[in-house]
Amino acid sequence: MKPARKQATFFDHLDELRVCVIRYLFVYAACCFFTYHLTGSILPFIIKPVGTVVFNAPGEAFSAYMILTLLSAFIIALPYFFYQIWAFAWEALTDKERKYIVFFGPLSLVFFIAGVLFAFFVIVPIALKFLLSFSSDYVVPMISIKNYISFVGSFVLAFGVVFELPLVLVFLVKIGIATPAFLRQYRRHAIMAILIVSAILTPPDVISQLLMAMPLVVLYELGVIFSVLAYRKKI
User: What are the helix and strand counts (H, E) for the chain?
Assistant: First the structure.
C-alpha cells in the first residue's frame, strides 16, 4: 500500500518559497553580470525604432544601461524562473494534477517569449508611430535614453505576462478550479479588469492602453475556447 503523502503546512510552503526565491536570485545575479557586458551591443538594436536617443543628466545613461541590464538578465533567466514557479506549484498539486506541469511548464515559457516578441515588434512600433506623430517643426521629439528603455521595458514585460492568460485559464480548468461556464459568466467582469490592468501597466495615453487591452480581450476569449476543449477532454 502506497504511504500517504505528508500534508505540508503553511510554513513548509513558505520555506519552500524562500528557497526558490534564493535560488532564482543567484541565477539572476549571474545573468546580470553576463548581460552587463553585452548591453553595449544590445542597445543599438533596442533603440533602432527611434534611431537615436539623448540623455539629460550625467548619470542618466548609466541608469538606462543598468535598467537594460536588469531587463535583459530577467529574459535570459526566464527558463529557470518558470522552473522555480512550477517547482513550487508542484508541492501543492495532487499526483494527478502534477502531470499537467509537463505540458504547461514549457508552454508558459513559450507564451511569455511570444508576448515579448509581439510587444517589441508589433505594439512598440505602433505606439511610437502614433505618439511621435504629434511632432512638428516647432515640437521636436528628444527622447531620453532612460525614458525610452523604461517605455519599451514596460510593454515587453507587460505583454510577456498577459500572454500567459490563455494558459492560466486552461490550467485552472484542468485542475478543477474554474469551468468554461464560469469564465463565460464573468466575461464582463474580466473585460473590466483588463481595462484597469491596461491602464496601470501602460503609459498614460489612451492608444497605449487600447493596444494592450484589445490583445488581452482576444487572449481571454482564446482562453475560454481552449478551456472548453480542455474541459471536454477532462470529462
Answer: 11, 0
pLDDT tens-digit series, residues 73-117: 999 998 888 888 887 777 766 677 677 777 778 888 899 999 999
Is this model's pTM higher than 0.85 or not? no
Q: Is 88 exposed, middle or buried (0-12, 13-18, 19+ CB in 10 A)?
A: middle
Quote the CA–CA distance of 146 and 150 in Å, as a whole number: 6
DSSP 197: H
Q: How far apart are the first and last CA of the chain?
A: 28
Closest residue by Cα to residue 14 from 88, 67, 78: 88
Give the SS3 label for residue 22: helix
Mapped onto helix, strand or coil, the DSSP state of residue 144 is strand
Using alpha carbons only, what angle is made at residue 72 by residues 66 and 74, rounded to the nearest 5 degrees? 105
Provide the residue type at 63 as one letter. Answer: S
Instruction: Please give the radius of gyration of the chain, using alpha carbons only, rounded to the nearest integer.
Output: 21
Q: How far apart are CA 223 and CA 164, in angstroms?
A: 10
C-alpha cell at 190: 474580466
DSSP letter, residue 54: B
Q: Hey, what's the cell of 80?
A: 529557470
538578465: which residue's cell?
73
**Residue 16, all three cell numbers:** 519552500
